[in-house]
Amino acid sequence: MAIINRIGNFADDMTGWRRHLHMHPELSLDCHQTAAFVVEKLRSFGVDEIHEGIAESGVVALIRGQGDGPVTGLRADMDALPILEETGVDYASTVSGKMHACGHDGHTTMLLGAARYLAETLKFKGTVALIFQPAEETVGGGRMMVEEGIMERFGIEEVYALHTDPFSEEGTFSTCSGPMMAAVDDFEITIKGKGGHAAFPHQTLDPVPCGLAIGQALQTIASRNADPRLPLVVSLTIVQGGSATNVIPETMRLAGTVRSFDADLRDMVEARFHEIVAGQAASYGVEATLDYMRNYPATVNHADQTAFAAQVAEGIVGEARVDANRSPEMGAEDFSYMLEARPGSYLMLGQGIGPSCHHPAFNFNDEVAPIGASFFARLIETRHGT
Fold first, then answer.
1. What does the pLDDT look like over 71-81, one tens digit per residue?
2. pTM of the model
3. Nearest-CA neighbor of 110 among 25, 176, 181, 11?
4. Domain region containing 280
5. Residues 50 and 189 in one domain
6. Measured between alpha carbons, how far is 219 from 223 in angstroms, rounded to an integer?
7. Could you tell me which residues come within 8 angstroms of residue 272 by beta carbon, excluding any fewer than 6 positions away?
8. Range list of β-strands (E), 220-338
9. Is 33 helix (H, G, I), strand (E, B) or coil?
10. Angle at the Cα of 181 from the Cα atoms of 135 and 353, rounded to 5 degrees
11. Do 323 and 376 belong together in one domain?
């Protein structure tokens, strides 16, 4: 395994940074302490062009190499999750109900490690744009940073990101060209009838039969409306109505999520939601409102940049430990907005089999941080070669 020697030499420092971040998790856009830690470290590395307050607490730092060359963005997300930690480690979260359960503390650490090496050596042409992003888990900090113009402002031409993978062997990389993670939409349906005594249903307008019918009909979108060759998930995850066995409720609530890759399929699904909800409400004589919320688009890797990134990864861990044909998955990621704005690639870095992301026992594996930092550094040195 060809971890860069200099990065290997300060691996213990990286472990310290990561565990500090793990102990002090922040949510959504409120990553101000995390950003301050990042800025402090960058300045100690000699990085002197640092732009703060993007998407409220995001940071973009520039490292300029030796002479003219491309501008490449490297992105790490910084936010944690509202989960009560159950790892039992001595550096567990000090903030009750918040923890780094998705490895963003590790992502930030890997990018800081690459920054330290690149700032010390400057063995590249052009510019590296280090993107430290808040709110990946919530409101889409990636979208906000793009909308605030970071690509144009800093002249970023390509973008790359890593995510830890607790389902793959330690020190392996996986990615694919084209769609890698799904678009995510959420929906909420409120059905209003007329409540009353369950012994006298004829005196009520029961919303429950309509809700059940809508729930069943939504499942026909994937089975009867969608091209079976295209991946689609329609999951009804919340069904709420009633509080007593002898009371017909006034209202019923349904909610859930939709995952897809194809843009036309995504449009069709939303249209069918409106048709099904309206049609069933009319059939049962109740009122129904649909709130259909489009969230992150599909994460679509660009072919040339993905092939290049996989080649760089092979130089770090060996060809046998890089899978460039990973199967797409139905999770979502707001790096998708950056890939819509600029060509680039998103890769997974195996940290060994363990609790999944978003699980209270999840913990980033510090052993793989030097691998990720070496990948980022070699990617820059290869693309920006002197």
1. 999 999 999 99
2. 0.94
3. 11
4. 183-294
5. no
6. 7
7. 221, 225
8. 232-240, 247-248, 251-260, 287-294, 299-301, 322-323
9. helix
10. 85
11. yes
